TrEMBL record:
UniProt organism field: Asanoa siamensis
Keyword Cell cycle annotated: no
InterPro entries registered for this protein in UniProt: Cell_wall_metabolism_enzyme, Dup_hybrid_motif, M23ase_b-sheet_dom
Comp. bias regions, Basic and acidic residues: 162-174
Signal peptide: none
Transmembrane spans: 6-29
Name assigned to this protein: M23ase beta-sheet core domain-containing protein
Residue segments, region Disordered: 150-201
Keyword list, A-Z: Membrane, Transmembrane, Transmembrane helix
Residue ranges constituting the M23ase beta-sheet core domain according to the UniProt record: 75-173
PANTHER family in the cross-refs: MUREIN HYDROLASE ACTIVATOR ENVC (PTHR21666:SF270), PEPTIDASE-RELATED (PTHR21666)
Amino acid sequence: MSAPPATRATAVGAGVAIVVAAVLAVLLVDHLRRPGPRPLFQLPVSCGETWRLSTYPGHDDFDVDLFPTEGESWGRPVLAAAAGTVTVSGVNGSLGGRTPENPRGPKGRGGGYWVKIDHGGQWETQYLHMLEPPLVEEGDEVAAGQQIGKLGSTGNSGAPHLHHEQRVGGEKVESWFGGEPSGITVDDEEVEIERTSANCP
């Protein structure tokens, strides 16, 4: 014996509603997973300064080391490359013992004092090997160009410098500064490029 027409119509309507809800859920999840546009990242160092961007074999693809082209390295301001929210602020690995007073002290492990910033749209930046505990804490909202720490050589670092990474969806990508690619992609060979910071108020 078949179900009355009204019951069949109700069942069909419920089935259609379930399918529509499932499709909308898939579209919503896909939208949430899709990265937003790349923020206009700037060099994470003071306005107008020229720095050397470099990598070397074994450094890992897309990792950028920054060294000033003139003046003292220790203690230089490390700035947020773009506005965002601090998600990590602390120690990555171990600090070691390299300081301005003892630059050849024992190396630590990992990134030493570091900061990670969420810029929205699944974009993040990371800043490693800072001299002292960061000047920002987890949950802080930071502006582009705001100082977040000081350049140092904590962690697994051979000399004072800033290790910088840009990530989207958790994956490292080529760093861009001022709307232009850095040119540092793979670590097959040593690369050095000079760029001037436009991370200005």
